[in-house]
Amino acid sequence: MNFFIRQLREDKDLTQTEIAAYLNCSQRIYSNYERGEVDLPTGILIKLAEFHETSTDYLLNRTNRKKPYPKN
After folding, report:
1. Which of 15, 16, 38, 72 could form a disulfide with 32 if both were Cys (CB 3.0 to 4.6 A apart)?
2. Which fold has domain 2-59?
3. How far apart are CA 8 and CA 45, in angstroms?
4. Which is one GO molecular function term here (predicted)?
């Protein structure tokens, strides 16, 4: 999972500090998420999926489909 959130962040030329501020956590905690040292809490996972306009399944490496699912 860490590869996907890091790649998405780097694709937008954002720093870990900028993403951490959006998630309301420290840069160190966010860095732990990217390195896979700490599992992403559900709320953080959802916020990252919304921010990057993708699905939680993509972030969890359960699909190659980067595009989010349609909302009902």
Report:
1. 38
2. 434 Repressor (Amino-terminal Domain) (1.10.260)
3. 13
4. DNA binding
Tell me the CA distances in angstroms from 8 to 3, 14, 27, 72, one per residue in order: 9, 9, 16, 25
d(CA 33, CA 26): 11
pLDDT in tens, 11-62: 999 999 999 999 999 999 999 999 999 999 999 999 999 999 999 999 988 8
Contacts of residue 53, defined as CB under 8 A and 6 or more positions apart, other chains included, come to 68
